[in-house]
Each structure stands twice: as structure tokens, then as C-alpha cells.
Amino acid sequence: MIKINTVADQIQLSGIRRFDEWVSKIDGIDKLTLGEPNFITPQHIMDVTKTALDNGRTHYEASAGNPELRQATADYYNEKFELAYDAKNVLVTVGATEAIATALKTVTTPGDYILVPVPCYPAYLPLMQLQGVKPIFMDTRTTNFRVTAELIEKTLQENKNKAIVGFIFNYPTNPTGVSYGKIELSSIKDVLKKHDIWVMSDEIYCELTYEQPHISMANLYPEGTILIMGLSKSHAMTGWRIGFVLAEERLINAMKKVHQYHVTTAATLSQVAALEAVKNGKQDSVPMRDAYHIRRDRLVTALEKLGYNLIKPDGAFYLFVEIPKKLKLTSVEFCQQLALKEKVAVVPGSAFTEFGEGYFRISFAASDEQLAKLIIALENSKH
After folding, report:
1. HSE-up (13 A, CA, CB side) for residue 100
2. What is the largest CA-CA distance in the chain?
3. What's the pTM?
4. What number of other Cβ atoms are within 10 A of residue 148's Cβ?
């Protein structure tokens, strides 16, 4: 009998994916569950990739990524967010999830602790668990779902005897859409730097911000930041599986080894597509962002009119909405009822750790017809 690794046996499949699979079996269901842009990859990216395939670009790429892509990626983010990276500071990965996994494997040791604001994107915790790294949760419900310097300092003081080495920071945040201005980020940076704590800054939604431009933590704390980026959200390229790690050269060199033995290299045709995206698609995200902005405003107005309490997102394409307390339903029960009775699917807040209980997440990367149906469904479900 082949035994399964105890940790692998204990971790659970993503709550988002589990619920999405469950609702997918319901006839006529409209799903607003996954973080999947409802746009297709821009045509110029697909055209260049088709040509590359016709020309036989089917062999291995360099393990750390095509050199031209690495430089173009550095240039792309330098221009957008006033950074100072070069090709040697970039690792091309199989999506942002592999970027996170590779970085964690490289810079942590079993027994280390990492600060994690919650509720959070559910992939972080299993990846930490597989590495033998433990989370220290920071409950952002007490700060209107925002990380603050004071919350970090308080958490550090309460856990003085633990080997806290890092901080996983995601913004605009999944599931709340919260983002941060320069003053907030500078205060957070000051606390981290004082305590010699690095930050893994997952900024995958950086090009989908509304009222204020995105400011990267790597701009303020370059020596202490492992920057996670990718094209899935900005260029509607989820299926191409391209992510990036941007960090100091010595860290990239170490991560390259871990990456190489996990996946060898990101797919060649996906790297061709990525090169076209970062060289000639610098404005590709704008029409998508503008469409999401309109949908956000329409949804926020409609749901507030219905009496729902919610977090108005600064970016990304999610709404995190409180379930009316009078219903006395768990987030799973509420979302199951919504799916079965109204044929509309949203994600239970408990998928984002127990700190998300009492809420549900809407992905408004959806059609106007689906969002109109959602509003009617939520009106029917509030009683």
C-alpha cells in the first residue's frame, strides 16, 4: 500500500473550487464564483502566438524564462510602477500560484512563521502548510478589512517568542478589493523594516484599480519585497499560466533552482504570448478595468439600496458582502440556497478562512445580464 504524505492528506481543495464544482451541477446556473475575467485574451497576443506555433516554436525555453521576456517584463513593471528591476530580477513561472509556491520554498524553513491578514485568498495557507510554515493570522475585520501598521505591530508584540520571518500581503485584495495609498504602505513598510521582516507582495490585480493608481510595495521596500505579478487578470490570460517573481538577483538565482526542479520552465508558447503582452499590450487592461469600474458602481448602488452591508472595493473585480444577520444562515447555507432557489452562484465567505464567515464574495467579472439576475436573486434572498 502506497502511503500519502500526512500533510498532503490533510490539506483541502480550495473552498472556491469545491463550491464552484458543486454549483456547476445545477442546471441553468449563472456562476459569479471564479476570479476569471469574462474577456478573451487580446487578439494581437493570440495572433503572435499562432504565428510562433506555425513557425515551430515548440521546444524548451530557458529555465528562468526567455531572456527577452525577462527584460521586457522588468521594463513593463518599471514603467508602470516606478520600479528599478532588470532581467536578472525576474523569474517567469507557471502562473502566480507557482510563483508563490517557489518563493515560499526558497525563503522559508519548516517551523518559520508568516503574518497573514485574513480573510485571504485560500491558496496561501496550503502552500505554507506543505512547506511546514505556520501562519499568524491578523484579523482585519477589526480594521474594516484593512491592514494597518498598528495591527502588524500589535500582532508582533503578541507573538514575540515566534520566529516570524515574513508577511504575505495581497492588494488589491481577494476577496475584499481593498487597496492602499502611499501613506498607508509607507507605515506598513516602516514596521516591517524595523523588525527585519520581508514581504511577499501579491499584486496580481495591480492594473485593476479604480479611484487611485496602484503603488507597489517594491517601490517603497525593494530590498525586502518579493513581488508576485502575472498576466491572468490584467490581460485575461488565466489559461496561459504565466506569472512572475520580481526580487533581488540573489533571491531569483535561488528560486530558479526550485522552479527548475518543479516545472523545468514555463510553456514556450505562453512565454511568446507574455512577451507580446508586456511589449505591445501595455494598455490592454484599460478597457477591462473601465468595464469593471462601471459594474462595481452599479452593483454597489443596487446592493446598498437593498440594505446589504459591503466593502466597496478599491480594485480587483470582487464584492465582499455581509449576509443579513436576521437570516441566521452560515455563508455556505446562504450560497447554497441562492444557487438552488435563484440559480445564481457566489462564493461563501468561509472559503477565505473562518474569518470570512458571515459574508459572500461576488465576482463581477460577468455579463450585465448575469449581474442583473444577481441583483434580483439577492433581493429575493434578503428576507
Report:
1. 25
2. 62
3. 0.96
4. 19
When the candidates are 3.30.200.20, 3.40.640.10, 3.40.605.10, 1.10.760.10, the CATH number that belongs to 43-280 is: 3.40.640.10
- Does the pLDDT at position 383 exceed 80? no
Q: Domain map of the chain by residue range?
A: 6-41+285-381, 43-280
Query: Does the domain spanning 6-41+285-381 belong to CATH 3.40.50.740?
Result: no
Q: Is 77 helix (H, G, I), strand (E, B) or coil?
A: helix
199 forms beta bridges with 167, 225
Half-sphere exposure of 116 (CA within 13 A, CB side): 24
Q: How crowded is the C-beta side of 53, counted as CA atoms within 13 Å? A: 10
Is the CB of residue 230 less than 8 Å from the CB of residue 103? no
Per cent of the chain over pLDDT 90 is 94
Sequence-ordered alpha helix ranges (H) in the chain: 6-10, 15-23, 43-54, 67-81, 95-107, 124-131, 149-158, 182-194, 217-220, 249-263, 268-280, 285-305, 331-342, 368-381
Q: How confident is the model at residue 215 (pLDDT cuts 50, 70, 90)?
A: very high
Q: For residues 131 and 251, what is the distance between their CA atoms, to the nearest angstrom?
A: 18
Is 348 in contact with 334 (CB distance < 8 Å)? yes
Contact (CB, 8 A) for 49 and 272? yes
pLDDT digits (tens, 9 = 90+) for 1-36: 899 999 988 988 888 989 999 999 999 999 999 999
Q: What average pLDDT does the chain have?
A: 97
Instruction: Supply the Cα-derived Rg of the chain in whole angstroms.
Output: 21
What distance in Å separates the CA atoms of residue 371 and residue 319, rounded to the nearest whole number? 12
Tell me the C-alpha distance between 65 and 271, whole Å. Answer: 8
